[in-house]
Write a structure and sequence with these properties.
Strand content: 15-25%
Number of helices: 18
Structural class: alpha+beta
Radius of gyration: 24 Å
Shape: globular
CATH architecture of the largest domain: 2-Layer Sandwich
CATH superfamily of the largest domain: Endonuclease Chain A
Strand order of the largest sheet: 4-3-2-5-6-7-1-8-14-13-12-9-10-11-15
CATH topology of the largest domain: Endonuclease, Chain A
Mean pLDDT: 87
Helix content: 40-55%
Low-confidence stretches: 68-76, 211-217
Number of strands: 15
């Protein structure tokens, strides 16, 4: 034993070097083989090589995608087609309902989404928490059969408690209620809202609650989806969490803005399918889609063509990212973007800049006041990259606006939970909806234009007028933008 310890002491430097080299080579090889983004691969390989032990440990904590969708559900369209044929139909003549250039965009969506685009949807915008939460509570109180709810943040505040009480009342009426909340988002308030459901009989689960080494491996892989489906036929989706700060009653004079949507038609079945898939992934309980849809099916009066687009760090990775690229490519007149966190990667920057150089007007609306200061600073450091090609950037006035809206040529729209940043487009599980409808998209475009009329134009001169220290701060924070 003495000889062994003497050997370790004499050759400890060599042994540490060898161990560091072996660990570093293994971790660097794993990063190079598994990362799909060359910049991410280069960054991780660089960190690991420059600091073998710490870099490999950091990569183990946050660099490895541990999501594995082991659950394989039946393709949702099998049931939807069998049950809905005769009552609902696939998207009709796109040239009439949207425009000829969107035929190719639909083909791209067909390869990116697990769902077909169906007609006969009714989609109603709900602006702000006052409209949204009242409509959600009223729908919950009218539920007869089932309620499926999924949210990133569900605060234990006045609004959270009102919605919780409505859900408990529904359960007491005999309605089946299941709630899925993200395990990180549920901690935005203390104590967590799940305490309110104790003893209610409601099934509640936390998405990605499994923890390993200080919870770090799962900190970036969150469910950012916001879905509520009533009786399988009425749905709410968009970007709004459950928080009292979005209501005028409780906003303390600084009511935050957001846009959510009330949905009837086959889209509600698609959103329910997304919930069922996530519920099975989280709890390993396989729900039967048919059991969650109350008959007879109700046929809405509107005839909007739309479908759900899911994305996340699994088999759906980059679905929304690629759809955005395709939408920018078919644009002929006008692109409008409203996003609270606008930090697109070089591919999307290229898509927007190319559209602007083709003569397409590109308007980008971002908040003047942001709830995430670091993201705000990083955005300011990058905006010049879209201005150079002629994109117009606007900064809204007043309280923070969390809306996520995207329209093309007043004929096609993308709404939902995704932001224009790496977290949404690569790391989070998101649920968005693409809509082929001139009337709906025109109304959404007019809403964005109204916000722009009350906004302030940002120019390259505006950005350069900031002090050198502020510009340097913004650039340093921008370097970490993939992780903000």
């Amino acid at each position: 034993m003495k000889a062994f310890w003497a050997f370790l002491l004499e050759y400890q430097t060599h042994l540490l070097f060898g161990a560091g080299l072996a660990i570093g080579l293994f971790a660097a090889s794993h990063a190079a083989m598994t990362k799909r983004d060359v910049r991410a691969a280069i960054a991780w390989v660089g960190v690991i090589i420059l600091s073998p032990f710490f870099g490999a440990f950091l990569y183990l904590l946050v660099g490895i995608n541990r999501i594995r969708r082991g659950i394989r559900l039946q393709h949702p369209n099998h049931f939807l087609q069998d049950q809905l044929n005769g009552q609902y139909q696939e998207t009709g003549n796109l040239e009439t309902i949207a425009g000829q250039q969107f035929i190719s965009l639909k083909k791209a969506g067909d390869t990116l989404s697990r769902f077909q685009a169906w007609s006969q949807n009714e989609i109603t915008p709900l602006f702000g928490g006052d409209e949204t939460y009242a409509a959600m509570i009223a729908a919950i109180d009218r539920a007869h059969h089932s309620i499926a709810m999924q949210s990133y943040i569900f605060d234990n505040d006045v609004i959270g408690r009102r919605i919780a009480q409505a859900l408990i009342r529904a359960k007491q009426r005999g309605v089946t209620v299941k709630i899925l909340i993200d395990a990180v988002g549920v901690r935005y308030s203390r104590p967590p809202v799940i305490a309110l459901f104790k003893g209610s009989g409601i099934d509640i689960a936390l998405f990605q609650a499994t923890v390993l080494l200080f919870k770090m491996p799962y900190a970036n892989l969150r469910s950012h989806r916001k879905i509520l489906v009533i009786d399988g036929q009425l749905a709410f989706a968009g970007g709004m969490n459950i928080r009292e700060c979005f209501t005028s009653e409780l906003g303390n004079g600084k009511t935050m803005k957001d846009t959510h949507f009330r949905i009837q038609g086959p889209l509600s079945y698609q959103l329910l399918t997304v919930f069922i898939h996530d519920w099975a992934f989280t709890t390993h309980e396989k729900l039967v889609l048919q059991d969650w849809i109350r008959s007879p099916l109700q046929k809405p009066q509107a005839n909007i063509a739309a479908r759900c687009i899911t994305s996340g760090p699994d088999s759906d990775i980059t679905s929304t990212h690629k759809l955005i690229q395709a939408a920018c490519a078919v644009a002929q007149k006008h692109i409008r973007i409203q996003s609270p966190y606008f930090l697109p990667d070089q591919v999307l920057l290229g898509a927007l800049n190319t559209a602007a150089r083709r003569g397409v007007r590109v308007d980008i609306l971002v908040p003047g006041e942001n709830n995430l200061k670091l993201v705000h600073y990083a955005m300011l450091a990058q905006l010049d990259q879209v201005m150079e090609s002629g994109c117009h950037v606007w900064q809204s006035k007043g309280p923070f606006d969390h809306s996520k809206l995207f329209t093309v040529d007043d004929s096609w729209s993308l709404i939902g939970s995704s932001n224009w940043d790496a977290r949404s487009l690569r790391l989070n599980f998101e649920a968005d909806i693409e809509i082929y409808d001139k009337n709906f998209s025109l109304a959404l475009s007019r809403h964005i234009d109204e916000e722009i009329r009350n906004a302030t134009r940002i120019s390259k001169e505006t950005l350069k007028s900031a002090s050198y220290l502020k510009q340097l701060r913004n650039k340093i924070i921008w370097l970490a933008s993939p992780y903000l």
